């Protein structure tokens, strides 16, 4: 076996496992920021996001993402058994000296991660059976279409939209879908009073949420360096820029909220670090170390204001802050790449072509995701229903939907 093939395939396999670990990170964050009576429900949703996503993506989603191109919009070949069909992506794997099976595995992890972002934003009131349908549609259609536009030879890649590890293709898709679902299912009981005043609903386990943040950060060393799809100098370099984005984001959020709220907030600091990591994805291979610090700092400062905007102004109840973390910072990552990517960015004298392409892509992804998810959610609301009954929400989803409790006293 060729040494380069073995090295590349082994590294991307490790990276895939690290991205899979992010499912545990999401589950910790989301359940920690929710109430204990809904913890089992949240953990099960995260498990099912992967189980449903892996199957649906293999049989349907991968073909839409990497099949033969139709007008730059979606793939048309490779359904049901993509590994046994002649797809252009397998030729690309040969050129990369990478196992096709490992490539499929890595892309499966990205797909499942995208769907999982929704879970935290609709926590504590979304019906479990309906959620499984949402997860299937996200992994089988909504994410793969955007993936085709960006990575499968679709129209966005042809106009110059470059997204190394998915600030747009993964995080914006998940964040926009989370926003549509959270808005349509409505806020939790007691979140807003009759005058629209916000009432905080504290999470039951902040250390668990913080642990989830650390696990997610570990997973990012598969998410970003793994996206090189090889073990080379770029892979090693992205470990540094990834780290700088996260560290700068965490400190920027810490000091910003310290000034704003007069106390250092651990949850906002951790989410600031994750905000920097989200934004890093778009051009982490092209940022200088100083550029990555700027990206992280901008996102860390922006994050708490975004949370307040959705919570207080738009009245969208998002227990985990997923909309701001992934949607807002996905947008920032896509836009900032147009300025700070050293190979094509405006600040390095390369003109505005990439920035324009990224703004066009941002708009297109927003329209596609918000539009399709809203239509899906409205249909589900009128058929299966989106929201649990009031009694179920007040007692907790664990008791009624799963007949168990996370904590037995």
* H and E order: HHEEHHHHHHHHHHHHH
Shape: globular
Radius of gyration: 20 Å
Largest sheet: 2 strands, antiparallel
Strand content: under 5%
Query: Helical stretch count?
Result: 15
The overall pLDDT, averaged over residues, is 95
**Structural class by secondary-structure content:** mainly alpha
Low-confidence stretches: none
Q: In angstroms, what separates the terminal alpha carbons?
A: 56 Å
Task: Explain the overall architecture.
With 409 residues, this protein is mostly helical. It contains 15 helices and two strands. It has helices at 3-33, 39-66, 88-96, 100-121, 128-151, 155-158, 167-185, 206-223, 233-261, 266-280, 289-313, 322-340, 353-382, 390-395, 397-402; strands at 69-70, 74-75. Strands 1-2 form a two-stranded antiparallel ribbon. A hairpin with a 3-residue loop joins strand 1 and strand 2. Helix 1 (3-33) runs antiparallel to helix 2 and helix 11 runs antiparallel to helix 12 (322-340). The longest helix has 31 residues, at 3-33. It starts with a helix and ends in a 7-residue tail after the last helix.
What is the gist of this entry?
This protein is mainly alpha-helical.
